[in-house]
Specification:
Elements lengths: L1 E7 L3 E10 L2 E11 L2 H8 L4 H21 L3 E6 L1 H4 L4 H12 L3 E3 L2 H14 L1
């Protein structure tokens, strides 16, 4: 099975595609794009319309890459910069309308758990 995860973070959007072979998971592609959503959220409290435009374009690009790899499953998660933006509902609505993605915005505990698990794994 081929699956992908897109992480919308404070400084960048990262995208990993992995393949499950027997008992092992192999990362077959990793991409990222610097976007610095945190600059908007932590200075103005809101994410700008321009960054929502760029985010939508990048998500559609990642979606095309996932399709090229034949990914069966694609999950999109967001972290602090999205979670703390005053215009979160607008952002989620725009992203879903433009890309078809529903973003799972992780709460603080979930985000830290993922970070901790990644540290342990490496």
């Amino acid at each position: 099975m081929v699956a992908g995860v897109i992480n919308i973070g404070t400084e960048n959007i990262s995208f990993d595609i992995a393949q499950n072979d027997q008992d092992d998971i192999d990362i077959i592609e990793s991409l990222d794009y610097p976007l610095f959503l945190g600059r908007d959220t932590f200075t103005t409290g809101r994410i700008s319309f321009e960054k929502v435009e760029i985010l939508s374009q990048k998500l559609l690009g990642f979606k095309r890459v996932a399709e090229e790899y034949g990914a069966n499953k694609l999950k999109v998660v967001g972290t602090t910069a999205l979670r703390e933006a005053e215009n979160l509902d607008f952002i989620l609505d725009q992203i879903e309308t433009r890309t078809g993605f529903t973003i799972d915005v992780l709460d603080d505990y979930e985000e830290k758990s993922h970070i901790y698990m990644e540290l342990i794994r490496n």
